[in-house]
Amino acid sequence: MPTGRLNMRRIRDVLRLKFAQGLSERAIATSLGLGKGSVGTYVRRAREAGLGWPL
Fold it and tell me: Is the peptide bond before 2 cis (omega within 30 degrees of 0)?
């Protein structure tokens, strides 16, 4: 069953943990209680949009 969208704070947390802390997508998913696919999707979308750190 699909869940709702993440709010902006959660998306920023995902990107901060990935780009600033260098955590794996699996570690991010575990720490934030998200699915690994969700984390990967947001990281991929950020890269495609040309976003980098700091946001």
Answer: no
